């Protein structure tokens, strides 16, 4: 490949979302990659969804998304929300701002039925230091991978403390699935906090189609991942 060959860094997101863990009888945790679609289950729904209300909560600030089976249209992201036939909440094109706590609540004749069912949404997002769509070989690029999680809402602790206590890890792997470490001479891996990890490298001509993947694991089981692939222009 010629020295003047340009490389463009394309973010190809590979999703593997998973429900895992519980913070209460009807609570669930969902891990998802940004830009993907996600389904949040309502574990306390009744026979019909007209009794279902969905509430979004983050940092003790609540917003009603669905009221008695009807989507609220005066909220910023209403076009990305829908109610499933099983009363689940569907969110399309997830963004890093969608992380937080989602509450499914049931009402009959104005009275709440049963307890709340909470779903905690954790969003994995990767950003690049380069704002250009094309970058040439020899350029340095930094990929920042961050897990957005409102851990204070359910554990009352910081994201770092929550990750440490739950055995959750973020790390980069190459296209062969081998974990990249600080001992790799070509890569600079740093972790400003447990909920964020960065990869810095200088692109080579032979990096065409090379992949780097950021993974979130819980006790060595992958929950979700984001893959960046280098493509020649």
Automatic annotation (TrEMBL):
Spans traversing the lipid bilayer: none
Signal peptide (residue range): 1-24
InterPro entries with a match to the protein in the record: Ig-like_dom, Ig-like_dom_sf, Ig-like_fold, Ig_sub, Ig_V-set
Signal found in the keyword field: yes
Annotated ranges, domain Ig-like: 124-227
Entry keywords, A to Z: Signal
The organism's place on the tree of life at top rank: Eukaryota
PANTHER family: DIVERSE IMMUNOGLOBULIN DOMAIN-CONTAINING PROTEIN 1.1 ISOFORM X1-RELATED (PTHR11422:SF5), T-CELL SURFACE GLYCOPROTEIN CD4 (PTHR11422)
Name by which UniProt lists this protein: Ig-like domain-containing protein
Species, as recorded: Cirrhinus mrigala
Lineage of the species this protein comes from: Eukaryota, Metazoa, Chordata, Craniata, Vertebrata
């Amino acid at each position: 490949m010629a020295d003047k060959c340009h490389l463009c860094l394309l973010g190809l997101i590979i999703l593997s979302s998973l429900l895992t863990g519980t913070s209460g009888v009807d609570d669930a945790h969902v891990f998802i990659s940004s830009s993907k679609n996600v389904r949040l289950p309502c574990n306390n729904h009744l026979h019909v969804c007209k009794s279902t209300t969905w509430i979004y909560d983050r940092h003790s600030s609540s917003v009603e998304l669905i009221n008695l089976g009807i989507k609220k249209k005066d909220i910023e992201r209403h076009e990305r929300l829908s109610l499933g036939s099983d009363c689940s909440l569907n969110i399309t094109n997830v963004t890093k701002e969608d992380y937080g706590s989602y509450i499914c609540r049931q009402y009959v004749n104005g009275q709440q039925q049963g307890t709340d069912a909470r779903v905690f949404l954790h969003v994995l997002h990767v950003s690049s230091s380069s704002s250009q769509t094309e970058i040439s070989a020899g350029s340095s690029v930094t990929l920042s991978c961050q897990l957005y999680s409102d851990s204070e809402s359910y554990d009352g602790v910081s994201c770092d403390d929550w990750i440490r206590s739950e055995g959750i890890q973020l790390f980069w792997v190459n296209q062969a699935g081998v974990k990249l470490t600080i001992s790799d001479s070509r890569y600079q891996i740093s972790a400003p906090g447990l909920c964020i990890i960065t990869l810095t490298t200088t692109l080579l001509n032979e990096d065409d189609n090379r992949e780097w993947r950021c993974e979130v694991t819980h006790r060595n089981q992958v929950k979700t991942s984001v893959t960046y692939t280098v493509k020649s222009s």
